[in-house]
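User: Can you help me understand a structure? I only have the sequence.
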Amino acid sequence: MARVYFLLGGNLDDREKILSEAISKMKLEVGELIRVSSIYETEPWGFEHESNFLNQVVVLESKLSAAKILDRTQQIEKDLGRVRKNNQYSERTIDIDILFYDNLVISTDRLMIPHPRIQERAFALVPLLDVASDLIHPVEMRSIKELYANCPDRMDVKKFKQ
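Assistant: Let's start by predicting it. Here is the structure, written out as tokens:
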């Protein structure tokens, strides 16, 4: 079984409900739920939009390959109303990113693990601190705590409904 770390996020419709539905579907389609972070709210990263994002990290154990997990999570995104646009950063009901798959490094046309920009994004690192602060990034060779301490992104990441 592989331990897989995901970042969920969305800024359209009932954001909190969609996060919950995504986690329920992931438990059925991907693997056993191990941990979830608190939910955090942030402004959009890389574009402007009137609705803030909710983000959450989810940890599952799965028997599936990383490629099969990608197929399943993209189907879950589609089922929950995700419409992919040509520009990389845009509003969405749900985005499910695979951050880590055990300590493997995977680089294909479809999938890069660890996610290539984790260390640059406070909205990914802050919820990761909740569930895996001592996890070592297999490329950077630093813990999530260390990555966050050196993160250039100073975006405000606030706990949602504290």
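Now, to help you interpret it: The longest strand covers residues 53-62. The chain has one domain: 2-116. Let me know which part you'd like to focus on.
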